[in-house]
From TrEMBL:
Signal sequence residues: none
Biased composition (Acidic residues): 111-120, 129-145
Pfam families given in the database record: DUF555
Name this protein carries in UniProt: UPF0212 protein C454_14270
Annotated organism of origin: Haloferax gibbonsii (strain ATCC 33959 / DSM 4427 / JCM 8863 / NBRC 102184 / NCIMB 2188 / Ma 2.38)
Highest taxon of source: Archaea
InterPro entries, sorted: UPF0212
NCBIfam families: PRK03922.1
Family note: Belongs to the UPF0212 family.
Stretch list, region Disordered: 111-145
Length: 145
């Protein structure tokens, strides 16, 4: 089974004045930490809400420092259950994003129709990844149960 996992990250950013600047820097900083090993992870702005349900910007700024909510999405291949997929995604992303808190937001099964096989027998999700993108063989990872 293949699963699409969404992980929320709280990325600290320093010396910023606006929310837009904080978001741009956080996305850039996160991309640098993930590349080239995890270039298939999609980075999106996170969403925040107040306790009353009001939409808030994805960044909180105080004293020219910001904490930015980002959502990181990746497809995990050949797992036995959704819990296993979430552990793998959290471990792979967490190893590269040191000292950044992570929380698994969702795990969804990927339909077999949305997964294609390249000419060499490897599978990849149709997420706009090119055929040259490297895939991680998650079966070779150490089980962290």
């Amino acid at each position: 089974m293949d699963c699409r996992v969404v992980v929320e990250a709280a990325v600290p950013v320093y010396d910023v004045e606006t929310v837009d600047e904080a978001i741009r820097i956080a996305i850039s900083k996160t991309g640098e930490m993930l590349n080239p090993d995890l270039k298939y992870v999609e980075i999106n702005m996170g969403s925040r809400t107040s306790p009353g349900g009001e939409e808030l910007p994805p960044a909180f700024i105080a004293a020219d420092e910001a904490l930015v909510a980002l959502e990181l999405e990746m497809t995990v291949f050949n797992v036995e259950q959704e819990e296993h997929a979430s552990r793998i995604a959290r471990k792979e992303i967490g190893q590269r994003l040191e000292n950044i808190p992570l929380k698994v937001l969702s795990v969804e099964r990927v339909d077999d129709d949305s997964v294609e096989t390249d000419g060499e027998g490897d599978t990849r999700a149709e997420t706009g990844a090119s055929d040259d993108d490297a895939l991680v063989d998650f079966d070779d990872l150490v089980d962290d149960r």
